[in-house]
Amino acid sequence: MRKYIVKRLLWSILILFFVSFLIYLLMRSLPSSYVETVARERAASNPQVSYKQWLERLNELYGLNVNPLQGFFIWLSQAIRGHFGDSWYYGVPVTQKFGSVIWYSFALGAAALIFQVALAIPLGIQSARKQYSALDYATTVFALIGISLPGFFFITILKMVFAVNLGWFDLNGIVGRMHDSYSPFRQFLDICQHMVLPTLNLVIIGTGSLLRYTRTNMLEVLNSDYIRTARAEGLSERRVINHHAFRNTLIPLVTIIGGTLPGLFSGALITETLFKIPGIGYTSYEAMLAGDIPFTMFYLTFMAILTLLGTLISDVLYAVVDPRVRVS
Q: Has residue 33 been placed in a domain?
C-alpha cells in the first residue's frame, strides 16, 4: 500500500505540473485582463502618460513582459515556496484572501455533505428493501428531480418561497443588517440562518445521485447468494440487512464519499454567487471576471490538487474497506 501511494503521489505531481502549465497558458491567453483595465483607468486620469506606457509598466511589474514559458517557471518557482503573489482585484496577498473566505465554503460544504449522507443512505436502503413500493417511487422521483434540474432553478424557487413570500430568510448575503449589534452567539446564529437556504439547495441537488447509487448497490447486494443463504438459515430480516447487506453496500459508497471530501474546500460557485456568500467560489468568480491572473491561477491549481487528492483517497479507501481488493 505504501509503495502504491508513493507511486500515485509521484504521478499526481507530474500531472499537476502539466495541468498548471495549461492553466497558466489559458490565463495568459485571455482577451482582456485586470492589467489592461487598470492601464485604461490610469491613462484616463493621467493623460500625460499614454495607455500603452501604463500597460508596459504594469506588465513589467506583474511579470507579464516575458514569454509564457519563462513566466510559468517564474510563477512555479514562487508557488513552490508558497508565494502566489498579490491579488490584482482584491489588493491583498492571494493566500491571505483565500484564508479569509475558505471557511465559509467549508462550513457550507460540510453541512450539505452531512445532510446528503444522512438522507441518501437510509432512503436508498429503504427504497431497495421495498422495491416498487410507494416509498420507492417517491424517492426515485425525488432523486431524478435533484439530478435533472439545475441548481439555479432550485435557488430561484427557494428564494421565492422562503425569502419573498414567507420572509423567513434574507435573499442574499452571509449576515443581516443588524449583525454588528448582536452578541457573539447571536452573530453565530445569524450566520447559520443565512446558511440555511444555500445548504438546502446543495442538499437537494446532491442527494439524488447518492440516493440512486445507494439504492442500486443495495439491490445488487440483496440479490446476492450469501443474502439468500443468510435468510435460509433463519436470520432475522433486521440482522440480514444491518449486519450483512449494509456493510457490503457501504464499500463503494465510502469511496464516493471519500472522493467528495476534498471538494469541501473547493466551494460551490453557482450557489455562493447567487446567494452572495463570500466563499471561495464567489470570490474566485469575481476574480475571474476581473481578469485577476494570480488569484485565478491559485484557485484553479488548488482545484486540480483537490481533484487528484480525491481520486487518490477513493482508490486507497476502496482497498482499505474491501479486503478482496489488493493493490499491487
A: no
What domain range includes position 311? Answer: 98-321
The secondary structure element, H or E, covering residue 322 is: none
Number of compact structural domains in the chain:
1
Contact 140, 208 (CB under 8 A): no
**CATH no. for residue 238?**
1.10.3720.10
Please answer whether residues 99 and 280 qualify as being in contact, where contact means their C-beta atoms are separated by less than 8 angstroms: no
pLDDT tens digits, one per residue of 28-82: 777 666 777 778 887 888 778 888 888 888 777 777 778 888 888 888 888 888 8
Assigned domain for 67 exists: no
pLDDT tens-digit series, residues 122-153: 898 888 888 888 988 999 898 888 888 888 88
Its pTM surpasses 0.90: no
- Neighbour-count burial of 326, counting CB atoms closer than 10 A to its CB (0-12 exposed, 13-18 middle, 19+ buried): exposed
Residue 19 lies in a domain: no
Q: What is the rounded CA–CA span in Å between residue 191 and residue 176?
A: 8
Half-sphere exposure of residue 264: CA atoms within 13 angstroms, side-chain side: 13
